[in-house]
Write a structure and sequence with these properties.
- With 157 residues, this protein is α+β, with helices and mostly antiparallel strands.
- The protein has a single domain, classed as Immunoglobulin-like (Sandwich).
- Helices cover 18% and strands 47% of the residues.
- It is built from two helices and eleven strands.
- Strands 2, 7, 8, 9 and 11 form a five-stranded mixed sheet that branches. It has a three-stranded antiparallel sheet with strand order 1-3-4, with no helix packed on it. Strands 5-6-10 form a three-stranded antiparallel sheet, with no helix packed on it.
Amino acid sequence: MKNIGIRQRVLFVLLTSMFAMQAAAAERIINDRSDQVTNPVQMGEVVFLSHESNRTKTNRGIFADSRHSVIRLSVENAYMDVNSSGFKTITALFRNHTDFDQFIEVRAQFYDDAFRVTEAFSRWKRFFLPANGVEAYSVIAIKLDTTQYRLEVREVK
């Protein structure tokens, strides 16, 4: 009879410690910046400077970790086009995946065929993204030899 009591106590202690470890390491949010930090700069891309906009959430368990992305903002489409006067225009369509309104700021950098900067960064342009809505950003390059672009996006708090 004493052995059963000791076994139950040991089992109880093991289960209690296992649940305590699970609860202590249950959820952690990390900003998975390694891709943007280590990848080479590419032309024709949109880069989120506010990494809270697109983050990775990791649930730590005893036997395995599960990860899923939490995306608050995304780019539906971004492209460069030539307008009627021959200047290049960049247009990007941003989507707000949250149920609350957000403000973001966007700026552009223009390059030529040899990836040399043709113009300084444009000024930060602030605009409103409604909850679960989309909004377009557009900017015109002043120099005619512009062939490439890069957009930077940050959240306004």
